[in-house]
């Protein structure tokens, strides 16, 4: 064997050598020149020359040759396993970092568009799960349908090449990519896939649909051979245009939020079970983030409505305070005016009587004429004051109800004609006069009619009057709409949401005004007869407090 040692092709037996002595060494491996052990482990074991030396050694029949071959093969096998394990750990480290970054964004955001942008970018980004396309379906508010809401991905190989090149050269993290997508491409991506999104409408009651089944099972599903799979509706497979795709259910606290469909439409790269397991952990935070963002969005809408209601309430409070002050001024003014009016009329009457019996040449006639003129002027001022105080401090009297209704209808005639509404009035015959405050009742009647008409067109209102016992009743029948029991209750509740914000305010105010006059306002909704308003008016003074 000593003679053979000079025949080794590999440099594994040399302690020192130069870079030119070994074809596997490069300028970056200068530190291996003087380390025989490291050089052997890192370079020689894979060197073709060493393999030929080992082969000649086995052929020599030396008893250690099989042992060296076994050790060499086992070393190479273990090193390959270590390298594969290192690659696997690197991949998992990147995946953990990615999920941590994704979770941080999803947990902190309450903006629905931001959450959706992050979720779809994570699925399609090469730094994420690397799918080609993703379609998001969201449940509507009533949880009756899943509807296509947003999509992301290329529609052609050329577009894919441009997009992927931009992403590779930008070197952006996930949050930056999603922010860029939201700012620059969100609306264009939605428009680009509108033909597909518009057809992605699935009833929640369709338990035979594969997407609904996946939601019920609450587990992601890898669909393969979609065109032959009996579970997949043919129109869904044709719409997506792929034979393999993922269905990711979005479930938050047992609430079906939506679903994501993902595929490799461009590359046609197979989707594996490992891909499915990786994405499975991603769906839970996305579902919760979407649900939280949706609830926050609805909360903001309700807050805005409450703020508007609060502003309306403040305006009404200010109006009520103003009305109370004006009523107080009216009462004071009326009291003072009545106290002055009687003695003033006596003074004026005596002065006119004296003036008639005074000769034209009497030196006192000028003084008497001045008294008469000033008294007359003061009477006119008092008349104006009393007229003004009557407007501020309403009073009750007996009024013709039919005439009152006709006047109110004339006041709203322009509104009725503008909206092509029909108002029919059937006055009752032989009705007694009602003891009411004309101004307040007219105001309430006009507001009930205007509130009933609202913004609708081509409707029908029937107004009638009749006598019931000692009362005169005004009936208003609205045949243009139907109301449920809860809607009927909301109709007379201040700031309740009916057909528009604050639509119940005027009716609630009218009911409050009429109740202060001991006049009931009743609203009923017969099943087949629209909505009926009833106002019963007293015909005697003692019937009101």
Specify the biggest β-sheet: 6 strands, antiparallel
Mean pLDDT: 78
Helix content: 40-55%
Distance between the termini: 132 Å
Count all strands and give the number: 13
Number of domains: 4
Report the portion of residues in β strands.
5-15%
The gyration radius over C-alpha positions equals: 46 Å
Give the helices and strands as they follow along the chain: HHHHEEHHHHEHEHEEHHEHHEEHEEHHEE
Characterization of this structure:
The chain is of the alpha+beta class and 545 residues long. It has four domains: 4-91, no CATH class; 95-292, Beta-Lactamase, CATH 3.30.450.40; 301-392, Helix Hairpins; 397-543, Histidine kinase-like ATPase, C-terminal domain (Heat Shock Protein 90, 2-Layer Sandwich). It is 54% helix and 14% strand. It has helices at 36-42, 48-59, 65-108, 112-124, 157-170, 174-184, 186-192, 194-197, 210-217, 234-240, 273-356, 365-392, 401-411, 413-418, 438-453, 485-491, 503-516, and strands at residues 133-139, 145-152, 201-203, 221-223, 245-252, 255-263, 397-399, 422-426, 434-436, 460-468, 471-478, 521-524, 531-538. The strands form three sheets. Strands 3-2-1-6-5-4 form a six-stranded antiparallel β-sheet, with helices on both faces. Strands 8-10-11-13-12 form a five-stranded mixed β-sheet. β5 and β6 (255-263) form a beta hairpin. α3 (65-108) runs parallel beside α11, α4 (112-124) packs antiparallel against α11 and α15 (438-453) runs antiparallel to α17. The radius of gyration is 46 Å and the shape is elongated. The N and C termini lie far apart (132 Å). Mean pLDDT is 78; it is low at 1-6 and 495-504.
């Amino acid at each position: 064997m000593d003679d053979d040692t000079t025949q080794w092709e590999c440099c594994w037996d040399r302690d020192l050598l130069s870079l030119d002595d070994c074809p596997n060494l490069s300028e970056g491996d200068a530190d291996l020149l003087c380390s025989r052990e490291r050089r052997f482990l890192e370079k020689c074991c894979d060197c073709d020359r060493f393999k030929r030396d080992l082969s000649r050694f086995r052929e020599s029949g030396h008893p250690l040759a099989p042992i060296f071959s076994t050790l060499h093969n086992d070393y190479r096998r273990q090193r390959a396993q270590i390298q594969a394990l290192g690659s696997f750990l690197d991949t998992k480290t990147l995946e953990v970092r990615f999920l941590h970054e994704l979770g941080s964004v999803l947990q902190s955001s309450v903006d629905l568009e931001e959450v959706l942008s992050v979720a779809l970018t994570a699925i399609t980004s090469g730094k994420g799960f690397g799918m080609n396309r993703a379609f998001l379906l969201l449940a509507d508010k009533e949880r009756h349908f899943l509807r296509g809401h947003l999509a992301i991905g290329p529609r052609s190989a050329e577009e894919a090449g441009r997009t992927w090149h931009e992403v590779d050269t930008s070197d952006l993290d996930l949050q930056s990519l999603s922010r860029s997508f939201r700012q620059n491409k969100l609306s264009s991506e939605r428009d680009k896939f509108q033909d597909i999104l518009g057809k992605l409408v699935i009833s929640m009651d369709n338990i035979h649909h594969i997407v609904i089944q996946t939601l019920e099972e609450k587990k992601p599903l890898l669909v393969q051979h979609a065109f032959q799979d009996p579970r997949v509706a043919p129109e869904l497979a044709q719409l997506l245009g792929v034979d393999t795709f993922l269905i990711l259910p979005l479930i938050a606290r047992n609430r079906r939020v939506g679903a994501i469909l993902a595929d490799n439409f461009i590359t046609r790269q197979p989707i594996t079970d490992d891909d499915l397991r990786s994405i499975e952990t991603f769906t839970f935070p996305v579902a919760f983030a979407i649900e939280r963002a949706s609830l926050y969005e609805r909360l903001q809408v309700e807050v805005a409505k409450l703020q508007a209601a609060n502003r309306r309430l403040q305006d009404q409070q200010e109006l009520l305070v103003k009305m109370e002050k004006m009523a107080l001024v009216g009462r004071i003014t009326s009291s003072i005016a009545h106290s002055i009016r009687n003695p003033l009329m006596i003074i004026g009457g005596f002065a006119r009587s004296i003036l008639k019996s005074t000769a034209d040449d009497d030196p006192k006639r000028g003084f008497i004429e001045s008294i008469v003129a000033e008294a007359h002027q003061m009477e006119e001022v008092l008349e104006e004051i009393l007229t003004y105080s009557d407007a501020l401090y309403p009073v009750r009297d007996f009024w013709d109800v039919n005439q009152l209704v006709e006047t109110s209808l004339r006041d709203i005639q322009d509104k009725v004609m503008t909206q092509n509404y029909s108002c029919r009035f059937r006055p009752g015959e032989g009705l007694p006069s009602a003891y009411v405050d004309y101004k307040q009742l007219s105001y309430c009647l006009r507001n009930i009619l205007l509130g009933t008409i609202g913004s609708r067109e081509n409707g029908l209102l029937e107004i009638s009057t009749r006598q019931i016992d000692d009362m005169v009743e005004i009936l208003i029948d609205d045949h243009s709409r139907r109301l449920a029991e809860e809607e009927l209750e909301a109709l007379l509740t201040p700031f309740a949401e009916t057909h528009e914000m604050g639509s119940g305010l005027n009716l609630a105010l009218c009911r409050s005004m009429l109740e202060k006059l001991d006049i009931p306002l009743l609203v009923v909704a017969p099943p087949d007869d629209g909505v009926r308003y009833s106002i019963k008016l007293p015909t005697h003074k003692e019937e009101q407090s």
